[in-house]
Amino acid sequence: MEIDIRELETYQELAHDGAQSAARSLSQLTGISTHVQVTNVSLMSSSDLQYEFIGNEFAGVNIDLTGEISGEVVLAFDEQGRRAITDTLVPADDPEKKKSSIEEVGNIMSSGFVDGWANYLNAKIKSSPPAYIEGTGTDVLPKSATQEDNYLFVFRSRVEATQDGVSEPIDFRILLVPDSSSLEKAFEPKTDDIVSVEKLKVFNDMTKEGAEKAATNITSMTGIDTTVEISRLTLVPIEDIPTEVGNKRYVGTVMPFDGKFSGNLVILFDQPSGRAVVDSLVPMETDEQWGSVEQGALKELGNIMTSGFVDGWANVLNAEIKHEPPQFVADTGSSIVSPITAQIAETDDHAFMLDSNIQTNSDQVFTCQMLALPRRDELEQALDDLLIENSNNTRVDPAELFDR
């Protein structure tokens, strides 16, 4: 199946407008201030989508769509959001009324979310009555995301809301998972800017395998047992990327790469993880937190991680991709990626972002995020040239990485 990238961008913008409409409806109903932080469309496996919801309690509604767009919409409020909504609308302690209030809010919000799509398509999109959902992980996800481990296109909006007297922000998510027949019709090529979904899947698999090599290299060098938890390919407005990465403080490396396609690979460790990596690599105490010794250790690790990550792309594309020496960074995530996105924004308004999260299976706290931000036109050309039969050529001898 081939999709029109420009149409995909349009649908991403429709999802963003729909999320804003839904957020406004919530504000009007409850008085809670809302702000749509980011809306994107991701190609990801169902298991990766499930992982995003593991461990968190949510309540909300599930709505089936039929018509020009068919699939499922989920509005999921975190526990604090659920309490804020129900306490505002139903002050009395009546569980059934509180449940009904979530259904009512979900129904009104979802109508605002869907209307923009119907107007754009000049077609009817029917919504089922909202079904109340509550629980953790897969309990609140669309049914299509809980079946076999297949790839899904997921339109995802994250909304932050604040309420007077509440210090912590309220989080709620809006997910739209269209079914495959609906996708094929909606994204039918109308311009020359097209890409094969099958090739996108291959590239996403390549990215996950590259992240797994990077995780193996972390373990080999530090002794910290790590695994790849999430890997996805996301089309996102460039202006939203700094918000997507967030304002948490990180240390890590930025490495430009060039060849068949060019861009930047960003490796970010949260502060405790960066410290744990340095302590395992540097067998002596130093006076500085991120002095030359610590920076050198992270750059060495970043260089080896990047080699494994990029070489998989080169093998499948049958082309050379080189990366420059790593640059050490220590700042908030948004500040680290802003100079990169500013360069991309000179020629594009959307970007493909390849995002992998590496974590540990042990009790030790460890988080590493790898972000690849390629030049979109070059990536699209590389995908056009990609031969799917080369998709098994991603294996790189780990010994070669340590000889570089």
TrEMBL record:
The keyword Hydrolase is annotated on this UniProt entry: yes
Swiss-Prot/TrEMBL keywords: Chemotaxis, Hydrolase
SUPFAM superfamilies, per the entry: CheC-like
Top-level taxon of the source organism: Archaea
Domain annotation Chemotaxis phosphatase CheX-like: ranges: 61-145
Residue stretches making up the CheC-like protein domain: 297-329
Any single biological process term in GO: chemotaxis
InterPro entries assigned to the protein according to its UniProt record, in alphabetical order: CheC, CheC-like_sf, CheX-like_dom, CheZ_family_phosphatases
A matching Pfam family: CheC
UniProt-recorded Gene Ontology molecular function terms: hydrolase activity
The protein, known as: Chemotaxis protein CheA
